[in-house]
Structure formats: structure tokens, C-alpha cells
Design a protein that fits this description.
The complex is a heterodimer of chains A (420) and B (184).
Chain A: H1 5-14, E1 24-28, E2 31-35, H2 40-50, E3 60-64, H3 73-88, E4 93-96, H4 101-107, E5 116-119, E6 133-136, H5 139-148, E7 150-154, E8 158-164, H6 173-184, E9 193-197, H7 199-202, H8 206-214, H9 216-219, E10 223-226, H10 230-238, E11 259-264, E12 271-273, E13 281-283, E14 294-297, H11 305-315, E15 325-328, H12 333-341, H13 344-351, E16 354-355, E17 376-379, E18 395-398, H14 401-410
Parallel strand pairs in A: 2-3, 2-5, 3-4, 5-6, 8-9, 8-11, 9-10, 14-15, 14-17, 15-16, 17-18
Antiparallel strand pairs in A: 1-7, 12-13
Helix pairs in contact in A: 2-5, 6-8, 11-13, 11-14
Chain B: E1 4-11, H1 18-21, H2 31-35, H3 46-49, E2 55-58, H4 70-77, E3 82-85, H5 90-98, E4 103-105, E5 117-121, E6 126-129, E7 134-137, H6 143-151, H7 154-163
Chain lengths: 420, 184
């Protein structure tokens, strides 16, 4: 029986030749990613109760990104617990303050097509950009994985989302995902596998594909897959890893997704989502009267090197409007280095940007940099729930790095195509 | 751990997200502290009023957003005995069950008003609204998830397994291959 890409990966992990959506299987986990918030401080006490260690430390990657830098007694303690865990276990990788987990994991060559991966963070679908089945779990479930190497799964149905043609200038993956949230809602995925396909998707580079897969979380999907191709293998090789045989990791021609959606890429305008949900998305032109206090380029979904370059393309030779703060938190140290090397960082700083640490920072709203009371912010992050950036009275609008940069220059939400 | 619960209903709308249930600012603290801020940005009196055995009732997408387990943990800490909603965020749904908090998909939540006394049977999905004298139904949980809740959640469930010396292999789930659960 033909299978979708998601079904193929799940079947392989479950040791089965065939799986059917809805059936419950137990899968062997190829890789588990944990971070400082949901990781050691939460799972170590549970592992102690079990009286066991890690099922396979060489399949575990630990990345500190939520409480970076520590700024009080609690966060220092969390850092200590995290580093102690790394010292006591010969992990596949430990990255302390090197950037946000979803960006660092593939950057260091830990992901490849066909893998079955769990991450202790809701934006774990990011890994699907590499043709891996990667999804987020909570700390208790992660403790179970770390102890057993297994997890149960209801085999997901697949929703295919095809983008035909090419995106216009100034229209990027973030616009695609905000648009889809607006069209399909926050439950458009219903814990299913979302499979992004079509010419417009194939034309995206890896970090843009990561933005798509990342925000599958906002669509309510469990995983967000993109077919691996030469773009994928080139990225993995550059990260120092071997991609393996990718030909098998695509849907069979006659496989049956539960839904198919088709969109015309050329018709898509830059999108903005109003408070307090990514589903409140509409074309940027509808928000021109919204004045902003803060423009924020940050997070796994919005401050990778491609995102920084988008912001720089708008900001080159321009200045941030008086009274507006432009805050930039490059998603990883390596991406920040790349931005320093190619002049991107200088353009941002010259325009008036203030740099923040390579961490989740304001996007997690975990402390150490919240919005002011009643502030209005436009940000390239993934979600704008009430209180998301630490302050419940703040109003957060979501847009692409292009849109955030253009809005910073004008002091109000602005269509970036006017500046490209 | 009982699968039958009754208490007063606290009724919320659609899209109650994890930032509302467990605000990021308090995530560095123990659950007792986080729980004191549960739902405060939309209902400042919830924590003050909720008592052990009460039931949270909501619309679509309860628990969408973050993987932070403190979202269902805060509800459990406050004594919430069950959550009934039209649908749940996928990770929240698994987290709640892993913690032993029954979460039931229920299309009939409109039949429950704020303060109604309700009785929830997670095994059968039968909900009695004692205030209105009506009986509603939720999708029952599949047996293997009920067994996990019955044990008190995933940790005690796995503890049993490790105590039996089964370090790898079937978790008791594989016996039921072919059964289906509602996709939240």
C-alpha cells in the first residue's frame, strides 16, 4: 500500500512495513533534543525515580537557550543543573548559549532525512524541514523517552499543502505561515503531519523551509515535512554530516493524504497577525494605521541568518524611526558570525538596532527583557499570545523580518515592498 | 487515582493557550508558584475560586502553544479533576494524560454553564450535569491511556514497568496495535 512521507518514517521507526493513520504504534526514537527549561531540571528527578540513566546518551542533544544568560538565583541554578547533566552524560552534543535549539540542532549536523526525532519544545516540527519526523513533547514524556528510547504515537493523517509558482519579492516563509494560520486556524493541523510541497517550497533555502516547518506548531500540526532534495543534502554536508540516501524519503505517488490544499504563491501578499493569535492574520496593508513602540527580530522562526539579511536589505542606508526600539536577537552564534562577516550586522547596527543574546529571549517571555506595559510591538516570532513577551498588556503583531524592519523605519506597520 | 470526578464547572472560551495557563515569566519557579498565576490574564479570580475536584470546561484548542508541561500541571496542582473541551492542543493533550489529568474531547460543552455541578466519568465519557439534570457525552479515552491515568500518569506507569525489570520492549501499548484514539 502506498504511504505518505510521514507514514514511511513512522513505519520505519515502529519497525513495521506498513502503518495506517489512527493506529497506535510504539516508535524507536533516533534522536532526542532537550533544552534548559524542559530538560535536565525536569527530567532528572523522574529518571531518579525510575532508577535508570539515559537509554542512549549518543542519541541525546542538550541545548541551553531559554535561560540564557542567567540573570538571577533561579536561572543560575537552572544553568548549573543543565551543565551538570551534560558533564555526567556523554551526550551527542551540548551547546550552551550557542543559540536556539531548533536552529543549532541542524546547524551542527544532527538532523537528516528519514529520522524519527522528539524535541522537548513545541517548535520541534522545525526538524521536518529536513524530511525528518520531528515533534514536540513535554518533560514527563521526554523523561520516558530518555529512559526507554521509545514513544507511542497515533499514526498521523497527512495534510498536503502545495504552493504553486513563485513568491513575489518581499514575500517569505513567515508570510506563508501567517496566511495559513489565518486560513486554516490554529487547529488547521489537528495534530496531523503537514507536508509542504510545490515549486514555491522547493525554491526556498533550508532556513526558510525551517520557518515553514517551525510554525506548523501554530497550525496545530504535529510535524511539518518538506521533501528532502539537493538543497537539503547541501546544507547537511556543509554542517559536516552525511545525509544518506534521500530518494526513499518522499510520499509514494498514489499515497492518500487526508486533505490537500493548493495555493498560488504569486498571489500572496506580506501578512501580519494582530494580537493575540497568529490566526488573526491579514495582508499587511490592513494594518497601516498601527503605530509601534518596538520592532523585534528574534527567535528560531525569525532571526536566522536569512532573516537577518531580510531585515538588513530593508534597513541598508535607513534609520529606525525616533521613539522606536529595534531589537535584534540573532538565533545562533554562528548565524551572528555569518552576519558579522558579510556586513549584515553592521547595517542593522548602523540603522539603530540593539543586539540581544543568541537565545529565545523575549520570545519565550521567560524573564530578562519583557515589553513595557501597554507597548505595541511588531515581531518576527512565531506566536503572539497574550503575555507571550512577558507583559499581558502588551500588543504583539507578527510579521516577516522584512515587515518588522520596514515598520521600524516608518514607526508604524508597513508593507516592506515599498522599501525593496 | 479515581477516574470519576465531580465538581463545579469553570467555563472558558476557545484558544486558551499555554502562555495563559503557565505564564512564561514564572516558568523558572516551582509549580506551586506558577499555579498561582494560572489563567490570571483572562480570569484573575480563577486561582482564588477553584477547589479540588472542580472541572475546567472550554471550547476549541484548549492548551494550544508551548510544550511546557507546567500548563496542565498547574491545573492539576490547583485540584482540577478533569478538563472538557471541544478540542485540545496536541502536546497539551499528551502532557495532561502523562500527568494523570483526564482531558476529554466533548462536543457538548455548551450544555455546561459556569458553576454547574458536573460529574465526569473518564472511562465511559459520560458527563452528568447535576445542576441541570442533563447527561452529556465525551469521547471516552482508549483503554491504554485510561490504564496510564489509572496508574497516576506516565511516571508511575513506567515505574511499574521498570520495577518488573522490563527495561526495553513493550510498554504495554504495543499489545493494542490497531486500536485508535481520538486525534485531539
Amino acid at each position: 500500500m502506498p504511504m505518505t512521507l510521514a507514514e514511511k518514517i513512522v513505519a520505519r521507526a515502529a519497525g513495521r512495513s506498513q502503518v495506517v493513520p489512527g493506529e497506535i504504534v510504539t516508535c524507536a526514537v533516533d534522536l532526542a533534543m532537550i533544552h534548559d527549561s524542559g530538560g535536565p531540571r525536569r527530567v532528572v528527578p523522574i529518571l531518579k525515580r525510575f532508577g535508570v540513566g539515559l537509554w542512549d546518551p549518543k542519541k541525546v542533544v542538550l541545548i541551553s537557550d531559554h535561560y540564557i544568560p542567567a540573570n538571577d538565583e533561579e536561572t543560575r541554578r537552572i544553568g548549573e543543573v543543565t551543565r551538570k547533566f551534560a558533564a555526567e552524560n556523554a551526550l551527542a552534543g551540548f551547546y550552551d548559549g550557542e543559540g536556539i535549539c531548533h536552529v543549532v540542532l541542524p546547524e551542527r549536523g544532527h538532523l537528516k532525512p528519514g529520522m524519527f526525532v522528539v524535541g522537548g519544545d513545541s517548535h520541534s516540527p522545525t526538524g521536518g524541514a529536513f524530511g525528518a519526523y520531528m515533534f514536540g513533547v513535554g518533560a514527563t514524556e521526554m523523561a520516558g523517552v530518555l529512559a526507554t528510547g521509545e514513544i507511542w504515537l497515533a499514526v498521523p493523517e497527512t495534510i498536503e499543502i502545495e504552493w504553486l509558482g513563485r513568491f513575489g519579492s518581499g514575500v517569505v516563509a513567515k508570510d506563508v505561515m501567517l496566511y495559513l494560520c489565518g486560513q486554516l486556524g490554529m487547529e488547521g493541523g489537528r495534530s496531523q503531519a503537514v507536508h509542504f510541497r510545490g515549486e514555491a517550497i522547493r525554491s526556498l533555502d533550508m532556513q526558510e523551509r525551517m520557518t515553514l516547518s517551525n510554525m506548523t506548531a501554530e497550525l496545530g500540526g504535529q510535524a511539518g515535512l518538506v521533501d528532502p532534495d539537493e538543497t537539503t543534502t547541501a546544507f547537511i554536508r556543509a554542517a559536516g554530516a552525511e545525509p544518506g540516501d534521500i530518494a526513499q524519503w518522499r510520499s509514494d505517488p498514489d499515497s492518500a493524504p487526508s486533505e490537500r490544499h493548493r495555493y498560488d504563491a504569486a498571489a500572496l501578499a506580506p501578512q501580519v497577525a494582530a494580537p493575540h493569535s497568529p490566526a488573526n492574520a491579514a495582508p499587511v496593508g490592513e494594518f497601516g494605521s498601527v503605530a509601534i513602540d518596538v520592532a523585534h527580530v528574534g527567535a528560531c522562526t525569525g532571526a536566522k541568518i536569512v532573516d537577518l539579511r531580510m531585515a538588513a536589505r530593508v534597513l541598508k542606508g535607513r534609520k529606525v524611526a525616533p521613539g522606536v526600539s529595534l531589537l535584534v536577537a540573532p538565533a545562533s552564534r554562528r548565524d551572528q558570525e555569518a552576519a558579522a562577516c558579510d556586513g549584515t550586522l553592521q547595517i542593522l547596527v548602523d540603522a539603530g538596532a540593539k543586539l540581544l543574546p543568541n537565545a529565545c529571549g523575549m520570545c519565550a517571555g521567560y524573564g530578562g527583557g519583557e515589553l513595557d506595559e501597554n507597548a505595541t510591538c511588531v515581531s518576527s516570532i512565531a506566536r503572539n499570545f497574550k503575555g507571550r513577551m512577558g507583559t499581558a498588556s502588551a500588543r504583539i503583531y507578527l510579521g516577516s523580518p522584512y515587515t518588522v524592519a520596514a515598520s521600524a523605519v516608518r514607526g508604524r506597520i508597513t508593507d516592506p515592498r515599498e522599501m525593496l | 487515582m479515581t477516574q470519576t470526578n465531580h465538581g463545579r464547572a469553570f467555563v472558558f472560551g476557545d484558544g486558551i493557550d499555554t502562555d495563559v495557563l503557565a505564564p512564561g515569566l514564572y516558568m523558572k519557579y516551582p509549580i506551586a508558584t506558577i499555579a498561582q498565576h494560572c489563567l490570571e490574564s483572562i480570569d484573575p479570580d480563577f486561582v482564588k475560586n477553584v477547589r479540588t475536584g472542580d472541572v475546567v470546561v472550554a471550547g476549541m484548542g484548549f492548551g494550544i502553544g508551548s510544550s511546557r508541561e507546567q500548563a496542565p500541571e498547574a491545573l492539576k496542582h490547583l485540584g482540577v479533576a478533569a478538563v472538557l473541551a471541544r478540542s485540545f492542543g496536541g502536546i497539551f493533550y499528551r502532557n495532561a494524560l502523562n500527568l494523570g489529568l483526564p482531558v476529554l474531547v466533548c462536543d457538548a460543552v455548551d450544555g455546561i454553564g459556569a458553576g454547574d455541578l458536573v460529574h465526569v466519568d473518564a472511562a465511559t465519557g459520560v458527563i452528568d450535569n447535576q445542576t441541570r439534570g442533563t447527561r452529556l457525552s465525551a469521547k471516552p479515552l482508549p483503554p491504554f491511556l485510561l490504564a496510564m491515568i489509572h496508574d497516576g500518569g506516565l511516571v508511575p506507569h513506567l515505574e511499574k514497568r521498570f520495577a518488573q525489570g522490563r527495561v526495553t520492549g513493550s510498554s504495554g501499548i504495543q499489545d493494542r496495535l490497531g486500536s485508535t484514539i481520538p486525534i485531539p
